[in-house]
Amino acid sequence: MRPSFCLLLLCALLASCDQLGIESTASVAARKDADGKAIGGACRHAGRAIEDCYSLNKRSDKAAVYAGWREMNEYMRDNQLEPVLPVLATGGAAGLPAREEPVAQAPLKPRPKVH
Length: 115
Fold this sequence. Notes:
Layout: H1 2-15, H2 25-45, H3 50-56, H4 62-78
């Protein structure tokens, strides 16, 4: 009776791994796939080419990104939606709106020497 109790306890512990916060490989793969599809869909909705999307998201799975991009492309074509152009600068700081023209900076004055 003792070995069967240990086996039952071991099965119960292994079944509760998800409750402990340990992710299985299947759930990690599903999450990465969903993230890639979301990235691809967002890139297409923003009017980005798939190659730009790949270069901006190098760590994402390319197959999932392409699947999301393609799904959003079909959805936008079927519903006659126009891309929403990004407001933020692609190479600048996040959270700052893109500027149309560069701002001229005042020349720096040398500081006086302190003795």
